[in-house]
Specification:
Elements: H1 4-14, H2 20-34, H3 38-46, H4 50-62, H5 86-89, H6 93-101, E1 105-106, E2 115-116, H7 120-129, H8 136-145, H9 165-181, E3 186-191, E4 195-196, E5 227-235, E6 240-246, H10 252-270, E7 276-281, H11 292-305, E8 308-313, H12 323-335, H13 344-352, E9 361-367, H14 379-384, E10 387-389, E11 397-400
Parallel strand pairs: 3-7, 6-9, 7-8
Antiparallel strand pairs: 1-2, 3-5, 4-5, 5-6, 8-11, 10-11
Helix pairs in contact: 1-3, 2-3, 2-4, 7-8, 10-11
Amino acid sequence: MKTEEQIFEQYALLVDQLDERARRIWAASEALTLGYGGIALVSRATGIAPSTVGKGIRELRTNSQIGARADGRARIRTAGGGRKTKVQNDKGLLEALDRLVEPTTRGDPESALRWTSKSVRNLAAELAAEGHTISFRTVSTLLKQQGYSLQGNRKTLEGKQHVDRDAQFQHIAAAVVAAHVGGNPAISVDTKKKELVGNYKNRGLEWQAKGEPVKVDSHDFMGELGRASPYGVYDIGDNTGWVSVGISGDTGEFAVNTVRKWWQAMGVERYENATQILVTADCGGSDGNRLRLWKLELQKLVNELAISIKVCHTPPGTSKWNKIEHRMFSFISLNWRGKPLVDYRTIVELIGATKTTTGLTIRCKLDTGEYMRSRKVSDAEMGAINITHDTFHGEWNYTIHPQLAGV
């Protein structure tokens, strides 16, 4: 009688030469030869499930063929056979996983890669609590399929972290959901990296005739065209964006005017019954939570639109977590990689031509307005702003309402 080791050695020699059905039939023949206990012994030696060995035995005894292929050969498996995936058996699984991961998603502004700070075991546990049967290994597989990957700590260190950082992201996520449920827009805003305008080297590679690279200036000294300041608005629920390419200062006035342009060109048509606009922004830059000019200009916009604007800022040191970074700006960088940004028209056209397989579209216009840097806002102007602060971190979360007539 063969031992378990002998069966394993024989199987190891044959396994690469056999297809699925042939392995099943071979295992069944070995089990039948061994007699009582043969199925268990073969299963332990080869790792083939006892039920699979049993199926092979039934096929041998009935000499059955499992259907036929279109080319006349025997089919290994019944058409449509095989174990269904978790996603096929649980239609709401992917949506539930994305909902758990999305509030804490972050990404490199210059890369389309996404990663998550939640462990697969924690995600599996939370999914199980919602009624989904899934292992942490399957969670890992699904995350990879959805474009996430596991990154080392050096990719996620962002310096000192605020104690309420995670709570603020949960607060923002809840605000976005509430906006969408109410039929209101939720937008993410920020300034993309400023770019030198001229025949300068632009990082990245592009297909060219061999030995004929695009020739650019050897030095990156700023020329007469200066720098471009692309400020973007990303509609989180609609997967669309607007970019104003500024030629002047990146100020709070410029930032708010870009939101105004987005609303006039795209927002008002999609959200004609909106009662509020939710804006998510960083804590620094031209839309920072401490910038007086940002709030003053928002008040002007609110008065024009006659609807309130709610603002939620990401905590300090977490600018890369802003949705616009990895959902829009990263794809703009991919679209113009290796192309010198020789003039403003080139920049506008390359941004406007950016698209993705998931449906992202972007509209872009050149903003030739002059925005004065270091513009001062008086205490009186600040005091007149009709603003209310949330009870949870009011310095990050606030709403600006239309001013009363005559104010």
